[in-house]
Design goal:
GO terms for molecular function: hydrolase activity. With 291 residues, the protein is mostly helical. It has 2 domains: 3-184, no CATH class; 193-290, no CATH class. The protein has 14 helices and no strands. It has helices at 3-12, 36-47, 54-80, 82-85, 88-100, 104-112, 123-134, 142-153, 166-191, 213-220, 233-241, 250-258, 261-267, 276-290. The longest helix has 27 residues, at 54-80. The two termini are 33 Å apart.
Length: 291
């Protein structure tokens, strides 16, 4: 199970009560003049796929809202990390990659009726193809274009190659962090609601307070576990909480810890002697990162 697949399943099944109304494709609020043409281009492109059919447009709303949220998180990273503050090109590339990272989702859903890459096409690659077709980055210098496209094409990979250019790696990691931060919002809604967890959302895991040894080991060692080790919804919740340790930037960890979504998922875990010391340690980690 890939990182991208997990994000797809959550995003596709986001509770409707969380989703925006029809004007979701409006541009994000901002005060960055050189981004204005890109906000307009994004909004116009998204609107071009709306059909007036409620269910179809609901799913496009979902992706437009997600893109806005990812941009906001990316801006937080750009404003809070000296690596991006020190270089306007890196900062611009990150913001562009965040805004456009899911651009291909609109054509993907329009053409295939799904957000599943396995059942259609790789949406990151489609985003890059659409951007090149529309020449959306023609006004940017060559370095910014290259960094932005690298961030987009790598955002849904399970892992990014460490041998790549340092600036491209930094942009890709920041986009991935911003993407995860918004998906945590959706995860918390599914995993902490009343009633059983949707088995599709929980990736086929069985509703049970039992925890698998490999998943618990990863959680206690402060590292991201493997989806293949999961057997129960408890495993799944622990793995989601482990995302805290897979975030790359201090802003990302502070945001993830401070927004309350991880704490809510943690509170939904079964109250067992086996989990208690690990949950207590994780609470301390959340408090430390949120401070």
């Amino acid at each position: 199970m890939s990182y991208g697949t997990v994000l797809i399943r959550f995003a596709f099944r986001a509770p409707r009560r969380m989703m925006p109304a029809m004007n979701a494709c409006a541009a994000p609020k901002h005060d960055i003049p050189d981004m204005e043409p890109h906000f307009r281009a994004f909004s116009e492109y998204a609107r071009s796929f709306y059909s007036g059919e409620a269910d179809h447009d609901f799913h496009l709303d979902l992706k437009a809202e997600h893109s806005r949220n990812v941009f906001a998180h990316a801006r937080g990273i750009a404003d809070g990390e000296e690596f991006f503050l020190a270089d306007h090109g890196r900062r611009s590339a990150l913001l562009l990659a965040a805004l456009y990272h899911d651009l291909g989702r609109f054509r993907q859903y329009d053409a295939y009726g799904t957000f599943s890459d396995a059942q259609s096409v790789n949406h990151a690659h489609l985003s890059v193809r659409e951007m090149k077709r529309l020449r959306l980055l023609d006004g940017e210098d060559e370095r910014v274009r290259g960094l932005a496209l690298a961030g987009i094409v790598l955002h849904n990979r399970f892992a990014v190659p460490r041998s790549m250019d340092a600036d491209a790696l930094a942009v890709a990691k920041a986009v991935r962090d911003a993407d995860k931060l918004d998906i945590l919002r959706v995860m918390a809604a599914h995993l902490t609601g009343e009633g059983p967890v949707d088995p599709v959302v929980a990736l086929g895991t069985v509703a049970s307070p039992r925890v698998s040894p490999a998943v618990l080991a990863a959680f206690s060692e402060r590292r991201l576990g493997f989806y293949g080790d999961m057997a129960t919804t408890t495993d799944f919740k622990l793995l989601v909480c482990g995302w805290l340790y897979d975030l790359n930037y201090a802003f990302s960890r502070k945001t993830a810890a401070g927004e309350g979504y991880l704490a809510a998922i943690l509170e939904s875990l079964p109250d067992t002697d086996e989990l208690a010391p690990h949950v207590a340690a994780y609470r301390k980690d959340l408090a430390a990162h949120a401070a």
